[in-house]
Design a protein that fits this description.
single chain, 302 residues, alpha/beta, Rossmann fold, 2 domains, six-stranded mixed beta sheet, four-stranded parallel beta sheet
Length: 302
Amino acid sequence: MKNLNLPSPIQSITFQNQQFFLKRDDLIHPDFSGNKARKFYYFLQNDFPNITKIVSYGSAQSNAMYSLSVLAKMRGWGFEYFVDHIAEYLKENPHGNYRAAIENGMRLRQAQPPFLELVEGKNDILFIEEGGRQKEAEYGIKLLAQEIIDWQKDQDIKELNIFLPSGTGTTALFLQKNLLMLNAERLTLVFTTPCVGDKAYLQKQFLELESDEKYHPTILTLENKHHFGKLYKENYKIWLKLQQQTGVEFDLLYDPLGWRVLLAHPEVFSNPTLYIHQGGVLGNESMLARYERKYPSINLEL
């Protein structure tokens, strides 16, 4: 199961009459793809003779939760996942990432943070921070940077702008850092937007992983505050338009805001622009059902 589709393909797409390049990290592996495959690549490729179980924490519909369940299955490890709450409806009607992770053997436990204290001192446990926000993530993201550099050279693109939406900001940060370190002769800038918190939150996440701000990506935002997980008609509309115009299914939680922010900042298009598809479409099952209930006539507005 370790056969991954690397380097992931890059294709040209047109959206809203603007040409983009699209890095298809959603196609790395049917079950282990996107930014989580990059973040957890280190744990797939290296030996951990003492480890018998992965322990992590977060929300009960997290992309990271599902990807860790796949990683544990690939490695023959157990997987224990902590949540501080889980909706009764989800427990009674498992779907999306939650159902898939359970099917992969995940053991879900309810507890209150800090969760690290629950496993400290146990040498057979691999503890993964929420969303994979840790130093080991750089291993797989460095490979992503090298794939982009090789493609850039092959296409003879001297200056490239890259965009991807952020949760913890781990992928965007390590990508910008490694592009600067590995690709000094070319100007390649990473732009991102905070989906989970605000700009200050994302800057704080960057600083926790890298104190040197010259390696930090450029943060772009919309004027109005965006609440993570809330249903926005504009998000649903742009997601449907993306599918209509490009034939590609994007994630419903991060990508709609990402594309809205990108289109609101046309200065990014001054250079060829590469958008990174970070996977996560398994979670669309639950989000799409919510959107369809709230906006049943949305197609009339497209």
